[in-house]
TrEMBL record:
The gene is gmk. GO terms for cellular component: cytosol. CDD domains: GMPK. It is found in: Cytoplasm. ATP binds at A20, P21, S22, G23, A24, G25, K26, S27. Its EC number is 2.7.4.8. This is Guanylate kinase.
Length: 214
């Protein structure tokens, strides 16, 4: 998709983009981070896949029909969208722009294709890739989660190899072996993002002024 690129100073909030193969622990880590940090808001994606057991429209995802999704693509309502595991997923402009314009940080759990599109559109997005500690553990996490059929698990494992081949394009890599360690690492990335010059210049404008620096 073609985009205007927003410069680092265009929005006061940060965009934290987290990608991982299915089962690596992305959703668990992002959920735990949000419980610890009230200043991070999730971006709720649209998807054409069906809701799983406890999922609620507007909470985990906005569930859309193929034609509703098409209409949003036509209307240029997405900042990014991609085909993932045979379905379409996308981040609407509405899901992120208002929040970052207000200065909130927004976290996106999206696939690698979407992550790379976000980087094109938002110069200050930080891209984090979560890796599982190994293939056997990835498979057993998908099985233990118990949300997907055997065929879907096989497809997700096959896609995992394709997704992980793009890890070098990301800014940070977190290996989710010990959950608490991985959560600590993710918190560190968010914290570092808030210490960037542009963010500090804005958040601590009075200090910069009193020091007579621009
Ligand atoms: P999970 O992999 O088990 O977390 O399963 P999900 O159904 O929640 O996510 C399916 C895929 O869609 C994952 O690779 C997500 O990263 C990706 N995804 C979720 N939201 C978005 C989005 O807004 N945009 C894009 N491009 N991908 C997304
Ligand atoms: P994703 O969102 O990447 O698909 P989930 O967050 O749903 O992954 O995690 C997949 C499964 O693995 C879940 O059952 C979760 O509880 C479990 N899990 C996540 N992180 C770890 C970890 N560090 N050690 C063991 N199990 C984990
Ligand atoms: P699930 O179907 O298990 O909820 O998600 C499967 C994959 O789709 C995950 O890897 C998730 O990150 C990705 N995904 C979810 N929402 C989006 C989105 O809006 N855009 C993109 N590109 N990928 C998404």
């Amino acid at each position: 998709m073609a985009h205007d690129t927003h410069r680092p100073m265009d929005y006061p909030g940060n965009l934290i983009v987290v990608a991982a193969p299915s089962g690596a622990g992305k959703s668990s880590l992002v959920k735990a981070l949000q419980e610890l940090d009230a200043h991070i808001h999730p971006s709720i994606s649209h998807t054409t896949r069906a809701p799983r057991g406890q999922e609620k429209h507007g909470r985990e995802y906005f569930f859309a029909s193929e034609s509703e999704f098409d209409a949003m693509v036509q209307a240029q309502a997405f900042v990014e969208w991609a085909h993932v595991h045979g379905k379409r997923y996308g981040t609407s402009k509405k899901a992120i722009e208002e929040r970052i314009a207000q200065g909130s940080d927004v976290i996106l759990e999206i696939d690698f294709q979407g992550a790379l599109q976000i980087r094109q559109a938002f110069a200050n997005a930080v891209l984090v890739f979560i890796l599982p500690p190994g293939w056997d553990e990835l498979r057993s996490r998908l099985e233990r989660r118990g949300e997907d059929s055997a065929e879907v698990i096989e497809m997700r494992l096959k896609n995992a190899a394709i997704e992980m081949a793009h890890v070098s394009k990301f800014d940070f890599v977190i290996i989710n072996e010990l959950f608490e360690r991985a959560l600590f690492d993710l918190k560190a990335v968010v914290h570092a993002q808030r210490l960037k010059y542009a963010a500090q210049r804005r958040a601590r404008a009075d200090t910069f002024e009193s020091l007579h620096i621009s």
